[in-house]
Amino acid sequence: MAFRLLALLSSLLFAFELASSACNSDIEGPYPISLVVYNSLADVQNLTYTTDIAYRGILLGAMMKIQESADTFKFTITENPDYGPYLVSVNGVAGNDNEQTYWELLAQLQNGTIIRPDVGVGCYIPNPHDKVILKFTKWECV
Ligand code: B12
Question: Cβ neighbours of residue 31 under 8 Å, at least 6 residues apart?
Fold first, then answer.
């Protein structure tokens, strides 16, 4: 009787270990990205930051992490009800509708290709080793 109970307990333990190890194998760790602040309208040096981002985490989270750890990186956003956070200013430099300036979001992928994400900082999910570029620039009216 005691033997059968022991056998039952050990098979239950085995099944539990199997289930938990299967779940653990689904866990993906964070990965590195870098962030470049580039003002194309002024003669100032680019600033580059690196951070780890949660697996498939959003860019805004990585930016908040950098802001917490680096004294030289500050940004502000406004919330748009349709599209989420709009990046208004970086390090005190703010976009201005009258001057048609804004912070453009670009990303250089690991293979060198530069893309212009079709979502903002609250929705963009950087790929591992992305170089995210916040570019202060002007928009053109067509
Ligand atoms: C004009 C425009 C811009 C102008 C806005 C300046 C201005 N004052 O007019 C500029 C060039 C600055 C711009 C920038 C960007 N834009 Co834009 N923009 C548009 C566009 C063509 C029209 C918006 C509009 O005037 N609507 C009419 C007015 C009356 O409504 P509104 O609510 O007041 O409009 C405001 C918002 O749309 C806001 N806005 C514009 N773009 C974006 C992007 C995001 C993420 C947010 C939160 C707000 C926002 O600015 C408008 C004026 O205040 C739309 C596409 C479309 N045809 O609708 C894309 C659109 C809204 N933009 C888009 C994107 C992706 C961007 C960028 C992230 C692109 C980039 N990679 O840099 C950046 C924003 C970066 C940042 N700083 O956060 C996407 C948003 C999709 C999404 N689900 O997130 C759209 C839908 C285009 C697309 N790709 O399909 N944009």
Answer: 52, 53, 55, 128, 129
- Domain edges within the chain: 31-138
Ligand 1 in reach of 100 Cβ (< 6 A) = no
Please report how many Cα atoms fall inside a 13 Å half-sphere around the Cα of residue 42, on the Cβ side. 11
pLDDT at 18: 45
Cα gap 37→22, rounded to integer Å? 41
d(CA 112, CA 19): 40
Q: Which atom of ligand 1 is nearest to the CA of 88?
A: 77
Q: What is the pLDDT of residue 115?
A: 98
Which atom of ligand 1 approaches the CA of 84 most closely? 47
Please give the structure tokens belonging to residue 116.
């212009």
Q: Classify 31-138 by CATH class.
A: mainly beta
Give average pLDDT by consecutive 10-residue segment, the chain, 142 residues: 53 50 79 98 98 97 98 98 98 98 98 98 97 97 76
pTM confidence score: 0.91
